[in-house]
């Protein structure tokens, strides 16, 4: 069950898609969604202010940055509470209730300090797609949640308006990452009118087959269609998956969040990176 959703927010608007989907999903699932605002600490800029500045000048700059940061926090909270109210979510802690609710919390510091750690007690983390002027901050947020939280995430484009996922498409290759995503996305599949499991290329003999996935889902009461396509000859795999998903009419794509370990830093693998960059529909992923 998905009972606790977290919606991390940075000081970089807009946040429309993630807010709309996160709150409407909480309403549909009778869950609690918590808006988590990560407010930059003005003191973090002190080492970059340069030598030769007086203590008073540095303090004045920090005070100005603090005022701006608090104003951004207030604007984000107003936006979150307005969307929650319009969705029918009361602002409360969601403990001991039988209805959906919303809450608000603030942490001060860097995205890397808080996003992944705070998300570990969420059933699902709703993050905005890295796009527009906020792409860098959003990309950092997605990476931190995917690789440090150990929880599934739902990446939402700004243009998304609701969590009415009528056709869920699972991009299956038999690896552990997508197997985990498959299991964690079950509550969303139960709400869908249709589920398709898509595989590109020949099945790997040492990995679960499409037929085995179908049996697994049937035991959960989900009658999924299986779709097998040839591996793309010229098109990159991520682009091919997006094209096939669009051709099937999918409005939610479930994938494994694959990675490379580069100089002790986890970075998105090529297929995942392409899907993150180019997807026009929400994407559910687990690492």
Automatic annotation (TrEMBL):
State what protein this is by name: Universal stress protein family protein
Domain of life assignment? Bacteria
């Amino acid at each position: 069950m998905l009972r606790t959703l977290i919606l991390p927010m940075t000081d970089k608007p807009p946040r429309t898609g993630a807010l709309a989907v996160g709150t409407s999903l909480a309403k549909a699932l009778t869950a609690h969604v918590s808006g988590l605002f990560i407010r930059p600490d003005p003191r973090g800029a002190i080492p970059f202010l340069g030598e030769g500045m007086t203590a008073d000048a540095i303090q004045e700059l920090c005070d100005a940055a603090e005022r701006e940061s608090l104003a951004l926090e207030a604007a984000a909270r107003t936006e979150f509470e307005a969307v929650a109210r319009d969705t029918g979510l009361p602002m409360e802690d969601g403990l001991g209730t039988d209805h959906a609710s919303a809450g608000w919390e603030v942490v001060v510091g860097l995205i890397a300090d808080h996003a992944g750690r705070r998300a570990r007690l969420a059933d699902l983390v709703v993050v905005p797609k890295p796009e527009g002027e906020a792409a860098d901050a959003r990309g950092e947020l997605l990476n931190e949640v995917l690789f440090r939280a150990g929880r599934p995430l739902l990446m939402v484009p700004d243009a998304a308006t609701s969590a009415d996922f009528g056709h869920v498409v699972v991009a299956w290759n038999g690896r552990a990452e997508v197997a985990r995503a498959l299991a964690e996305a079950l509550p969303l599949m139960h709400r869908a009118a249709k589920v398709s499991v898509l595989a590109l290329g020949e099945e790997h003999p040492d990995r679960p087959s499409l037929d085995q996935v179908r049996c697994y889902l049937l035991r959960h009461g989900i009658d999924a269609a299986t779709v097998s396509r040839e591996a793309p000859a010229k098109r990159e795999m991520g682009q091919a998956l997006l094209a096939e998903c669009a051709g099937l009419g999918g409005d939610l794509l479930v994938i494994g969040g694959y990675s490379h370990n580069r100089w002790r830093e986890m970075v998105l693998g090529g297929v995942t990176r392409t899907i993150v960059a180019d997807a026009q529909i929400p994407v559910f992923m687990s690492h």
